[in-house]
Specification:
This protein is an all-alpha fold. The chain has a domain of 37 residues.
Length: 81
Amino acid sequence: MMNILKELYDGQYGVELPKTLEYRAVRHKNVEGFWDKIEEAMGPDFIEKNWENLSRQEELESFEYFRQGFHLGVSLMLELL
């Protein structure tokens, strides 16, 4: 069953979060500004050295959230039966 979840998470299922103007503004302020400040303080080499690990961590965390949400959804559906 985990392979199906991983395929849904990684794959062709075409659901996207809405990208409203408010979302974009908040993301830009929080994320882009954050990395700009780190680059100023630590230099671009610091970001490059750590980017791969940070990306992998985010991927694993996101999949875990997805998995837990999927489990909750299935549990709710089973409760209705």
